[in-house]
Amino acid sequence: MGKVIAIANQKGGVGKTTTAVNLAASLAAAEQGTLLVDLDPQANATSGLGADSSALGQSVYQVLLDQKPMSGIVVDTALDFLTLAPSHVDLVGAEIELVSALSRETLLARAMEDVKDRYRFIIVDCPPSLGLLTLNALTAADTLLIPLQCEYYAMEGLERLLNTVKLVRGALNPKLEIEGILLTMFDSRNNLSHQVAAEARSHFASKVFKTVIPRNVRLSEAPSHGKPGILYDIQSVGTQSYLQLAREILNGANLG
Amino acid sequence: MGKVIAIANQKGGVGKTTTAVNLAASLAAAEQGTLLVDLDPQANATSGLGADSSALGQSVYQVLLDQKPMSGIVVDTALDFLTLAPSHVDLVGAEIELVSALSRETLLARAMEDVKDRYRFIIVDCPPSLGLLTLNALTAADTLLIPLQCEYYAMEGLERLLNTVKLVRGALNPKLEIEGILLTMFDSRNNLSHQVAAEARSHFASKVFKTVIPRNVRLSEAPSHGKPGILYDIQSVGTQSYLQLAREILNGANLG
Ligand SMILES: Nc1ncnc2c1ncn2[C@@H]1O[C@H](COP(=O)(O)OP(=O)(O)OP(=O)(O)O)[C@@H](O)[C@H]1O
Ligand SMILES: Nc1ncnc2c1ncn2[C@@H]1O[C@H](COP(=O)(O)OP(=O)(O)OP(=O)(O)O)[C@@H](O)[C@H]1O
Ligand SMILES: [Mg+2]
Ligand SMILES: [Mg+2]
């Protein structure tokens, strides 16, 4: 059975998509069958893997709103062991369109049953909010990976996210655990980065991954070529840090 | 009558809050009576000005959901000519709580009538989505200022935002204009920054502000002290670029 890892944080621009795309690609490079589900109407993970969301006929929109099987909308990527469930801008209407649907928070969890045993990992990229789409991801997930940008505003939102996790665990998904907190865009020349990292490690101790993702311009260039780091510039420090993260997760030894 | 400028972009982490806080503070420094309305449940603009959203009794939540007058919830800040309408995490429920309210997109516009003639400028910070809160801001606004981070994913979302502006102009707010597109976190050593800036200027020509906000660590440190740039480090390049932006807007000459 595939392990479902949701990548979520309501704070915007903290590296959710960059983490989802590069972790999924790194797991695929380790020959672990991986599905990347793009649950953000911005469809950044979709274009980050070179797919054109407006050109594809179907997306996770049909899965959530028309109960189409997930296996019917997935597409191949440039990596052998990586498959994509693309997003589409229509998803932006899902929150309102599903307001009276029965058990609207479990739509994704039910849709995953169709594909869960075909992949070793299923990575879900979330939009920057704690609305219905992110709730669906937290309900379907085995674990939550929280990208934490090493900046002040990013620390502020963490408590609210962890409260939401407790609510979801109580009402919708008792098995939900924290996979880990990932420090992103770490700039070793910048005091603020060190302060946020120290604060995160003192509050959350072993829940913080040993792997730290540095600020690295090659990571932000790769999406404009529709490629994950390992296909754009495998030597770059950014790409190597995501390969290291994949190893840490595969070893499962990271968290006490 | 005060000019209402909404600061919006559904892409996360592009500098909406940093722009709202520092532009409002720079206008206040020019002795223009300014109100900053924090419409984001993350309440980053509230804490960026040193206020504690959970300690304040009231927020824009009461204005939108209980029709409380805006003048009844505003608080003073450390700057003479700057007043804040604080946010609160309760706002996160507004989208669902208001789904059957009459004319739910015009709640903010109606609430602004109460304060519009007391301020020269009203700046509205928005969450990273095009949901009901941002629609309220676009409906209440005279103009929209779009922070555009000089990165690939940020360019992708621009077309959708401009489509939403056309829809709002057609259905809710015929006077809505674009104040301008502001290039943020520009890093002159980085090719990507130059590429995005060149593309934005070729697509949107005179709609792009002459002022460009550089990536500047002092801007990201200031919120941890609850201060805008002009009170944290007035000499910094970041602070000076927002003072320049305020001058450009006050001159009104920026956009052809
Ligand atoms: N380690 C890094 N070094 C440099 N740039 C990065 C890094 N991680 C992400 N970026 C860039 O920072 C921006 C924000 O990252 P990303 O889009 O992945 O965040 P997000 O949390 O998914 O945003 P949103 O909240 O809009 O979904 C992007 O332009 C991305 O290319
Ligand atoms: N010019 C800049 N230079 C350096 N850091 C910046 C700059 N502008 C913003 N930042 C930092 O980048 C991060 C994102 O900025 P900010 O929170 O203002 O974006 P936002 O668009 O309001 O995010 P959200 O989508 O979550 O509301 C913050 O940590 C902020 O301090
Ligand atoms: Mg994203
Ligand atoms: Mg913000």
Multimeric status of the protein: homodimer
Question: Largest interface: which pair?
Answer: A-B, 36 and 36 residues
Radius of gyration of chain A: 17 Å
What fraction of residues of chain A sit in β-strands?
5-15%
Biggest beta-sheet profile of chain A: 7 strands, mixed
What bound compounds does this protein have? adenosine-5'-triphosphate, magnesium ion
State the end-to-end distance of chain A.
Answer: 23 Å
Number of strands of chain A: 7
The unreliable regions of chain A are: none
Given helix and strand content, the structural type of chain A is: alpha/beta
How many DSSP helices of chain A? 12
Helix coverage percent of chain A:
25-40%
Q: SSE order of chain A, as H and E?
A: EHEHHEEHHEHEHHEHHHH
Adjacency order of strands in the biggest sheet of chain A: 3-4-2-5-1-6-7
Shape of chain A: globular
The overall pLDDT of chain A, averaged over residues, is: 95
